[in-house]
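Moderator note: this is an archived Q&A kept for reference. The question asked for a predicted structure of one protein chain; the sequence and the answer are reproduced below.
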Amino acid sequence: MLETQNLTVRFGGHVAVNAVSCRFVPGTLTAIVGPNGAGKTTYFNLISGQLPASAGSVHLNGRELTGLSASARTRAGLGRAFQLTNLFPNLSVLENVRLAVQATKEGTHRRGLNLWSIWSDHAALTNRALEILTSVSMTAQQDAPVASLPHGDQRKLEVALLMALEPSVYMFDEPTAGMSHDEAPVILDLIRQLKKDKTKTILLVEHKMDVVRELADRIIVLHNGELVADGDPAEVIASPIVQEAYLGKAREAT
């Protein structure tokens, strides 16, 4: 279970996230929605460690993560898509994933570096990387340099790297942003596949309500940095506070 307790961050006199307490359980995809400036991405940054909290705490499976760095939280099981990992543009697709698998295994086993371990593990690392590429339908591009990939395939590769880290919590911050109409369904299909693993917790920041309606088991709504709604997607979307704070503003903007 991932839990935030009174999580707060202040920038000068501005409170960007104000005492947000929430629990996220395995087997559930929770969508985090709200108008621009509501604090959604800031809340993500506080959970994943990109920002230090002014007050409150973050816990994963009973362990407090609040004082840990972003990389330490990754090792603890928090996976932040699209911001956690950087692609190596001059390496191949397979080499990118293999390096992520290797980093995960070394972090787990903390084995000393020696020639025997390098050679004995090479095949296992490659096989695991190929398994991940198969799951994201990218084996045909395994030898292509990452720099040659179109934007949509680079996004798919970033999901593959996240999968290689084997997190217990997947965090997606507007995963289809900047993608074309044809590219976006590929990423959404990957998230649907991840949802099938009921041992995983998925958090999704998304402004496209059609995506939220389809994927979310639960919606929480942030407005002016505060948690203002939490529950079943249909009920939350229909609630007056969401209609006014989020959907109404979206209609006015259009």
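Archived answer notes: The chain is about 40% helix and 25% strand.
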